[in-house]
UniProtKB/TrEMBL annotation:
This is Sn-glycerol-3-phosphate ABC transporter ATP-binding protein UgpC. InterPro entries: AAA+_ATPase, ABC_transporter-like_ATP-bd, ABC_transporter-like_CS, ABC_transpr_MalK-like, ABC_transpr_MalK/UgpC-like, Mo/tungstate-bd_C_term_dom, NA-bd_OB-fold, OB_MalK-like. The keyword Ubl conjugation does not apply. It comes from Thioclava electrotropha. PROSITE patterns: ABC_TRANSPORTER_1, ABC_TRANSPORTER_2. One of its GO terms (molecular function) is ATP binding. Belongs to the ABC transporter superfamily. SUPFAM superfamilies: MOP-like (SSF50331), P-loop containing nucleoside triphosphate hydrolases (SSF52540).
Length: 369
């Protein structure tokens, strides 16, 4: 069992670089947590603090009830899988998987039982006599997973374990990692910069930027109710569209977003949370998929512009629109037929709008985590 808690944790590297700032995070036993963010945001540093590979500069890192700030890695009951696999090139798959157990003086029988069991689960039993150089990338990654599995750790740490695999294999390995989590019944902490990976795997996602947590929540929370423009922009493809404008009060407690060529009436519950804020400078967000081809009166709950680009992506298509000199991107059904330069009106799904403060970027309608 392992619950992991960070309380006011900071990490400053020896050169003074402040990589993680005031981190507060409570990871429940058996939870699948994904640390998500752009390169350099501090996710690997956070994972390495759990592993004991990096020391906490201040604050406390707690496993269950024990502060582990100064507990060395081999006493933490964690296993880690790296992007680079880190296999021993001259050992067979069998020996690679069993090596950690051998170093801990496990009996030959125990090693054999655990290696065979892990190999079976990972479907690599037929590869046990090979060396890493005789394996594909996906098979090597399974060996790395097997090596971590046989240790039966309380915490499983993974740092971009799929990023060296091709697109198709990444998707099938995602399903396997999810199944592994279910079967192992341990706490998983997984680092990635890939939003799709995070959304598919996580019970909860921690979005980080510049060493600071931006939002902690379920995949739905993060995608549907982003706490700020950073989170809103980091997830979604093509990325969310923004419009700068102001709030305008209307009759019957109505609240609308207005700017040149656009007036969108906000749903009643958003209007209620924005009551009294008319005149406020806001940034409105419309996700690429939250539009439909519509005939609503132009300028009112609808967006009109000209088609700039049409990019089919198989199941649907990305539609580029010129909107008063601004370039917007939407994701629409593959059956919509539009030609370059054509005028088009899209109806906006008003229930799925996002409203942010223009200065701070904080959401004004979803409670920040
Ligand atoms: N030993 C170190 N000394 C000084 N700065 C470091 C050290 N290790 C990492 N950093 C810096 O700390 C920041 C966070 O690094 P970290 O590896 O945690 O980022 P990341 O989010 O995992 O990024 P990536 O996806 O590129 O690995 C980066 O700016 C990095 O350059």
């Amino acid at each position: 069992m392992a619950r992991i808690r960070f309380t006011n944790v900071n990490k400053k590297y020896a050169n003074g670089f402040h990589a993680v700032r005031n981190l507060n995070l409570d990871i429940e036993d058996r939870e699948f947590i994904v640390l998500l963010g752009p390169s350099g945001c501090g996710k690997s540093t956070t994972l390495n603090m759990i592993a004991g590979l990096e020391e906490v500069s201040d604050g406390d890192l707690i496993f269950d009830e024990q502060v582990v700030n100064y507990v060395p890695p081999h006493k933490r009951d964690v296993a880690m899988v790296f992007q680079s696999y880190a296999l021993y090139p001259h050992k067979t798959v069998y020996d690679n998987i069993g090596f950690g157990l051998k170093m801990r003086n496990a009996s030959k029988e125990e090693i054999d039982e655990r290696v065979q069991d892990a190999a079976k689960k990972l479907e690599i039993s037929h590869l046990l006599d090979r060396r890493p150089s005789q394996l594909s990338g996906g098979q090597r990654q399974r060996v790395a997973l097997g090596r971590a599995m046989v240790r039966d750790p309380s915490v499983f740490l993974m740092d971009e374990p799929l990023s060296n695999l091709d697109a198709a294999l990444r998707i099938s390995m995602r399903a396997e990692i999810k199944e592994l989590h279910r079967a192992m019944e341990t706490t998983f902490v997984y680092v990635t910069h890939d939003q799709a990976e995070a959304l598919t795997l996580a019970d909860r996602i921690v979005v980080m930027n510049d060493g600071v947590v931006q939002q902690i929540g379920t995949p739905d929370d993060i995608y549907e109710r982003p706490a700020n423009t950073f989170v809103a922009s980091f997830l979604g493809s093509p990325p969310i569209n923004y419009f700068d404008g102001v709030l305008e009060a209307g009759p019957d407690d109505e609240m609308a977003f207005v700017r040149d060529g656009l007036r969108l009436v906000l749903p009643a519950d958003h209007a209620a949370s924005l009551k009294g804020q008319e005149g406020r400078a806001v940034r409105l967000g419309i996700r690429a998929e939250d539009v439909a081809e519509g005939t609503a009166e132009p300028g009112y709950n609808a967006l009109s512009g000209t088609v700039n680009s049409v990019l089919p992506v198989g199941s649907d298509q990305y539609l580029g629109m010129d909107f008063g000199g601004e370039e917007l991107f939407f994701r629409v059904g593959k059956d919509l037929r539009h030609a370059f330069g054509e005028s088009i009106t899209l109806a906006v799904d008003l229930n799925r709008l996002h409203v942010f403060d223009r200065e701070t970027g904080q959401s004004l309608i979803w409670n920040a985590a």
